[in-house]
Amino acid sequence: MKTPELPPFDHQPKKYTGPSVDEVLRLRKEFLNPGIFLYYKKPIMLVEGKMQYVWDEQGRRYLDALGGIVTVSVGHCHPDVVDVARRQNETLQHSTTIYLHPNIAEYAQKLASKMPGELKVCYFVNSGSEANDLALLMARVYTGNYDVIALRNAYHGGSAATMGLTAHRTWKFNVPHSFGVHHAIAPDPYRGLWGRDDVDAGKKYAADVKDLLDFATSGQVAAFVAESIQGVGGCVVFPDGYLKHVYEHVRGAGGLCIADEVQTGFGRTGTHYWGFETQGVIPDIVTMAKGIGNGCPLGAVVTTPKIAATLGQRTHFNTFGGNPVVCAQGKAVLEAIEREKLQENALKIGNHILAGLERLKEKHNLIGDVRGKGLLLGIELVKDRQSKEPAREECAQVLEACKEMGLLLGKGGLHAQTVRFSPLGQAFLPAAASGNACPTTFGGLASPHGTSAADPCLARPRSAGYLFPHVLRS
């Protein structure tokens, strides 16, 4: 089988004249904290980006199907986003909320217009961790309660407070944390007690939240917080009705419901603008970051006027929150999503890809589960479908092989056993028209000649050409 190639793209990257990969790696090891990590056995250095593609220092092109870790929502260096940021940088780079500025006011109005119900008041921060930290503060002050319910397999950030909400040992340091936080079982239809064939699965998983309220708290809580789809946990989609039942339990205990939309927001699910809308609920507080700014340090907390008023009890200030440059960029992102119909594109192309992956699952036992919505997809790999033993090494091999073909993917799950596919909204616009671009971008998950996870095909450097074979043609 011929190794797939990326489709033609009308952009010539600039000649790179900076330090070599080896020199950058040396500087990184000496001057950057060792806590940060790299993908790939042989790390790549990205120096330029344009829409769905990025280039390394040698001028080699890659399709960014991870979207800068679900962050580049409308395209690398999108011309409209770059232009507004450039113009604002040339006019006034920084001003804080102690002064008036039109950008933050107009952006807040535009963002609020995308929200349902009374979710109309915005507070801008710099990251998802900050947003979730602030949402916790609001909920605790507003309710007068302290305890919080979160979910196992969740990721909500790495700050001292949000690390307590996060429920992966790999992201939690052995220091005091999680004060007042109780973790309910993850509503995972693949690995959990109730699967997709159980119409009452959502209600049954939600019952564990009620048990926590009754047996682990005073019966009064500040909040329940959950990602609308668990991203870092491996793109886990909750059963229908889950959040509806949970919200009823939590509100009955005096708590607020917080939706973490850091990865699911801004039309990525395709069917809806916000992930929580896929569950038919309206939260009390919504947190967002990543795709909100197409790569700039921007996050937000959106809530109701009544809840927002709690911050007025004390002085609260964020130096960079609402900076005029990032607000200009955030507003341009919203406009690009609308103008270029990227939500509709996420639905059309996401469904097309998901259907192809389902067909591959029927052929290859290495694929334990395929799931997701729109352009937020997960392919969970297992060594055995009965035991569901995570195929961590095979997942790493798939990422390596795909990288060699020019496709950048991600991985998730506690054991890094799930391939994460979360391209920017622009990534497959050419494919929507031609039907030819998507197949050339895929690596794969199993040999075409068998179903064993240990198939020697996986060990060959160019084995990615056999993985996801012609996924959208089959």
Structure, described:
Helix content is 31%, strand content 15%. The chain is of the alpha/beta class and 474 residues long. It has two domains: 21-74 and 341-466, Aspartate Aminotransferase, domain 1, CATH 3.90.1150.10; 79-339, 3-Layer(aba) Sandwich (Aspartate Aminotransferase, domain 2), CATH 3.40.640. Strands 4-12-11-10-7-5-6 form a seven-stranded mixed beta sheet, sandwiched between helices. α3 (79-91) packs antiparallel against α10 (324-339), α4 runs parallel beside α10 (324-339) and α7 packs parallel to α8 (242-252). The longest helix is centred in the C-terminal third of the chain and has 22 residues, at 342-363. The protein is globular. The chain starts with 20 loop residues before the first helix and ends in a 40-residue tail after the last helix.
